[in-house]
């Protein structure tokens, strides 16, 4: 059934706020409206309604939400915020599972702990000034999703503390009372407690404002995410910002800067544990941005990721631009090949050099004498200002056309200049004159040198892996220290992709004592026995599911990778809904045969403990099975084939 006249959500409005507006202006019982929306038993403050597809199907034709559950999730829930730092493939998997309704615990998929999920779903927050402005502009109040994260305490627009829903109304456990518009309740004296108490601590207040503005920016960003993992970008930015180590991230330095940047008081109020605020051996930054997170196996904590972003992003006071992977630092250039070092003297002006060269007919020695400097100083200043000095006829004849071409080729190939001088028997001054004749040679030589170094270091790592295929990261870091350090600083992406997977050893060095293959086979036998017991029992059947079988044998909490046979066996014996209903109906008909009375809908549904809708769906199967069992169907019954 579609609801005509369902309100259109405002940008950033929560689902609960839209539903509350619909209930306020709809006559009749609220339970009926919620039942049509498939939200009768849903929690108003849940992250995402479990029956999302049914909610979208109940929208009127032409409504933005009609048959478009992705618009509901992407535009009116906190999923884009909690998945901002997740791998793009994992983000799409979670979106797909939630949109299809196959995820029964979205909070776990988002990396939220039980406590964090409980804090998120307790009560809505709103800004009193936003409510007043919305009533003046739209005629109704709106609850915005940017105000709902537990770590957002102030309004990013008005910089005022947010308010919780009324305490008295929140005490009610009735589902219907949870659907309320922002700032509205039926209490004579509403009690709206502030989510933030302002104190005389500028750093603390600035931190809460910064967080609120970043959440607003992230949720307002409609651009598509980059293919690169934001966690990978954040890890690379931290390394480029001076928080790197030979093994990856310098966790101690990050935690120290973390506490200095935000202060212990703010971090404590945000729920950051004492161990995470301690710089002595804490490894949480490395775990937060580990390879499993970058690969998409886990979802990183959005609060800690945001706070880490503040260490390398100059947005302390809340920039208007959203945090984006496009704001990553430029690739680092090896020292010695980037911008020239600063001269400890004043550089000659370009005009003076041009006048001297014109007066000396292009002879650099005579021009240097006119300016009263050495020829080498004049050549350096000309190179720094990208000035060209064509080779004179005398210089070309002295060096030779063939040798000049060989020097140019060597420079373009990135050959070190000292090797060029030694192999070609040419002076440093002559090489400098050749560079002055073609100013682009310096840039080409620099780029070729970096490329040559990169290829040499990559070759060293690949050669080591070829000779020692079983070597781990530590062996490569020790045996190829120069190549490892260079690649870690200037080619980290390639290095991470070509290093062997980390070897995780136990804390005590002992191998596992459990014989997991034997345990796995024991669980398989136990699952088969549980299936036989279910199929052979005399009582009412219960559905055989994967989780039920694993739970009965005690394997549900075990690691799936260690028990592949048990999990495969449980999935093989799991019943579909159709198979289970047929088995239950067959049992009910067999039990009904002892009554010696025609089958009626009322009696059969009591025996089978099924709804009439399920029995009507299998009307033909019931009639066929009743014939086999010698049972008759009452002609007045809805199950009768002659009715």
- The helical percent reads 40-55%
User: What's the gyration radius in Å?
Assistant: 36 Å
Judged by helices, strands and strand pairing, the structural class is mainly alpha
Largest sheet: 2 strands, antiparallel
Q: Determine the number of helices (DSSP H or I, runs of at least 4 residues).
A: 35
Strand content bin: under 5%
Provide mean pLDDT, rounded: 82
Uncertain regions spanning at least 5 consecutive residues: 316-331
Number of beta-strand segments: 4
Task: Tell me the distance between the termini.
Answer: 28 Å
Shape: elongated
Multimeric organization: single chain
Q: Order of strands across the biggest sheet? A: 1-2
Give a structural overview.
With 643 residues, the protein is mainly alpha-helical. Among the domains are: 15-178, no CATH class; 223-327, no CATH class; 448-498; 516-575, no CATH class; 578-629. The chain contains 35 helices and four strands. The strands form two sheets. It has a two-stranded antiparallel sheet with strand order 1-2. A two-stranded antiparallel sheet has the order 3-4. Helix 20 runs parallel beside helix 24 (428-437) and helix 30 packs across helix 31. The longest helix is centred in the last third of the chain and has 28 residues, at 440-467. The protein is elongated. The chain starts with 14 loop residues before the first helix and ends in a 14-residue tail after the last helix.
């Amino acid at each position: 059934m579609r609801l005509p006249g369902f309100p259109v959500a405002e940008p950033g409005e929560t689902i609960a706020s839209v539903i509350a507006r619909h209930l306020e202006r709809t006559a009749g019982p609220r339970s009926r409206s919620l039942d049509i929306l498939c939200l009768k038993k849903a929690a108003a403050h849940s992250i995402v309604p479990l029956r999302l597809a049914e909610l979208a199907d109940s929208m009127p034709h032409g409504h933005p939400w009609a048959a478009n559950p992705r618009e509901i999730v992407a535009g009116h829930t906190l999923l884009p915020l909690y998945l901002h730092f997740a791998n793009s493939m994992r983000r799409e998997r979670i979106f797909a599972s939630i949109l299809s309704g196959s995820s029964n615990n979205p909070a776990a998929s988002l990396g939220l702990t039980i406590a964090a999920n409980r804090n998120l779903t307790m009560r809505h927050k709103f800004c009193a000034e936003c409510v007043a402005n919305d009533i003046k502009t739209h005629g109704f109040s709106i609850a915005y999703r940017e105000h709902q994260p537990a770590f957002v305490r102030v309004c990013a627009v008005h910089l005022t503390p947010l308010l919780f829903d009324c305490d008295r109304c929140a005490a009610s456990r009735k589902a219907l009372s949870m659907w309320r518009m922002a700032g509205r309740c039926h209490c004579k004296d509403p009690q709206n407690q502030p989510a933030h108490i302002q104190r005389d601590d500028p750093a603390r207040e600035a931190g809460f404002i910064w967080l609120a503005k970043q959440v607003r920016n992230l949720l307002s960003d409609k651009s598509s995410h980059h293919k690169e993992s934001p966690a990978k970008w954040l890890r690379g930015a931290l390394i480029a910002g001076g928080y790197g180590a030979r093994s990856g991230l310098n966790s101690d330095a990050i935690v120290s800067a973390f506490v200095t940047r935000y202060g212990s008081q703010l971090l404590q109020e945000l729920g950051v544990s004492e161990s995470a605020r301690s710089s002595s051996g804490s490894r949480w930054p490395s775990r937060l941005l580990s390879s499993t997170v970058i690969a998409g196996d886990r979802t990183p904590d959005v609060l800690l990721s945001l706070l880490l972003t503040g260490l390398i992003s100059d947005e302390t006071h809340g920039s208007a631009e959203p945090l984006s992977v496009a704001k990553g630092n430029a690739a680092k250039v090896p020292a010695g090949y980037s911008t020239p070092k600063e001269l400890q003297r004043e550089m000659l002006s370009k005009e003076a050099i041009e006048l001297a060269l014109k007066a000396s007919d292009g002879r650099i020695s005579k021009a240097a004498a006119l300016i009263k400097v050495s020829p080498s100083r004049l050549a350096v200043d000309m190179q720094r200002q990208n000035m060209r000095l064509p080779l004179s006829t005398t210089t070309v004849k002295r060096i030779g056309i063939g040798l000049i071409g060989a020097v140019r080729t060597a420079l373009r190939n990135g050959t070190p200049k000292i090797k060029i001088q030694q192999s070609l028997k040419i002076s440093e001054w002559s090489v400098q004159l050749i560079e002055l004749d073609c100013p682009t040679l310096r840039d080409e030589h620099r780029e070729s040198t970096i490329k040559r170094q990169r290829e040499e270091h990559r070759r060293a790592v690949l050669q080591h892996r070829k000779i020692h295929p079983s070597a781990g990261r530590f062996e490569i870091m020790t045996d190829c220290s120069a190549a490892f350090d260079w690649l870690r600083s200037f080619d980290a992406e390639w290095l991470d992709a070509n290093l062997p997977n980390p070897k995780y050893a136990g804390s005590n060095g002992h191998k596992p004592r459990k014989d997991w293959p034997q345990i796995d086979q024991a669980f398989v036998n136990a699952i088969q026995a549980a299936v036989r017991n279910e199929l052979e029992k005399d009582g009412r059947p219960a559905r055989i599911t994967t989780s039920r079988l694993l739970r009965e044998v005690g394997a549900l909490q075990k690691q799936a990778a260690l028990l592949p046979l048990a999990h495969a066996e449980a999935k093989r014996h799991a019943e579909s809904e159709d198979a289970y209903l047929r088995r239950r109906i067959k049992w009910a008909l067999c039990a009904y045969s002892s009554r010696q009375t025609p089958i009626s809908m009322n009696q059969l549904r009591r025996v089978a403990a099924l709804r009439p809708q399920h029995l009507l769906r299998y009307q033909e199967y019931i009639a066929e099975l009743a014939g086999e069992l010698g049972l008759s169907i009452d002609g007045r019954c809805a199950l009768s084939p002659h009715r």
